[in-house]
């Protein structure tokens, strides 16, 4: 195998790994924000949360459940 091709595959793997890690971090931050605000049953609180909902396929419709003490 040519060393240039091997280096290209390594760079591609590092780039794609970074994209995956970036997407996971974005979803993790948005989920934490939604959990803190108890906003999953309503509209998304921001652009990051809207994007995470689109990535995960979770919408804002459904039950209107609020934890104890939040009603």
Question: Care to describe what's here?
Answer:
By secondary structure, this protein is mainly alpha-helical. It has one domain. It is built from 2 helices and no strands. α1 crosses α2 (47-56). 7% of the residues are buried.
Q: How many individual β-strands?
A: 0
Report, as a whole number of angstroms, the end-to-end distance. 64 Å
Taking pLDDT < 50 over at least 5 consecutive residues as the criterion, the unreliable ranges are: none
- Principal-axis shape equals rod-shaped
In percent terms, what proportion of residues is strand?
under 5%
Count, helices? 2
Mean pLDDT: 82
Radius of gyration, in Å, reads 19 Å
> What's the SSE pattern?
HH
Helix content: 55-70%
- Domain count, please report it: 1
Structural class: mainly alpha
Largest sheet: none
Question: What's the structural blueprint in terms of helices and strands?
Answer:
Blueprint: H1 3-37, H2 47-56
Observed structural traits:
63% helix
Summarize the structure.
This protein has 71 residues and is mainly alpha-helical. It contains two helices and no strands. The relative contact order is 0.12.
């Amino acid at each position: 195998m040519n060393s240039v091709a091997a280096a290209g595959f390594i760079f591609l793997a590092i780039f794609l790994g970074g994209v995956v890690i970036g997407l996971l971090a974005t979803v993790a931050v948005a989920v934490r924000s939604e959990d803190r605000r108890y906003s999953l049953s309503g509209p998304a609180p921001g652009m990051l949360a809207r994007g995470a909902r689109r990535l995960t396929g979770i919408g804002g419709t459904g039950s209107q459940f609020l934890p104890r003490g939040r009603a």
